[in-house]
Amino acid sequence: MNNGFGFLLTLAVAALALSGCGESVGDRGLTGAGIGAAGGAVIGAMVGAPLAGAAIGAGAGAVAGAVTSPSVVDLGKPIWER
Length: 82
Known about the structure:
Number of strands: 0
Distance between the termini: 43 Å
């Protein structure tokens, strides 16, 4: 498995697992983008491309968060609404 595929696979799994924060589609998409960007930047920094990793992670996290049902993964209201 080459580095690019492993990076994307790891990023997709992390984004899907962590993107279910929030009650609405917008909340889950926003928190998924934030979590994905952070994870992508860290992983991207390991291979020398933190900005590309953050961009890919934000996109993957936003999509995963938006398509995740709150009944599947519900971590409650986002921190900014508490």
